[in-house]
Amino acid sequence: MARVAIDLEETVEDPGLTDFSVAGSNASGDFRCADCGYGAVVQQVLPPCPMCQGTVWERREPRAAHSD
Ligand SMILES: [Zn+2]
After folding, report:
1. Cα(39) to centroid of ligand 1, in Å?
2. What's the CA angle centered on 8, arms 37 and 33, to 5 degrees?
3. pTM of the model as a whole
């Protein structure tokens, strides 16, 4: 099974959906594999998931990390 959805670079219309990025994209921050949930901190370029080889990452926004 190697079905890969790449149609995720379009702007997400539904404000309730999380931001997704694909491996190879320039990105930095906290990401989580959309497939297996593996968490990774990305510095420059999103890698394929080391756990499941997935290529779709879900951005984890650092909001609500600390309330003031
Ligand atoms: Zn994964």
Report:
1. 8
2. 10
3. 0.64
Q: How far is the CA of 58 from the centre of ligand 1 (A)?
A: 11
CA of 65 to the centre of ligand 1 (A): 24
| Residues with a beta carbon under 5 angstroms from ion ligand 1 | 33, 35-36, 38, 49, 51-52, 54
Picking from 21, 19, 40, 18, the residue whose alpha carbon sits closest to that of residue 29 is 40
Per-residue pLDDT tens over the stretch 23-45: 999 999 999 999 999 999 999 99
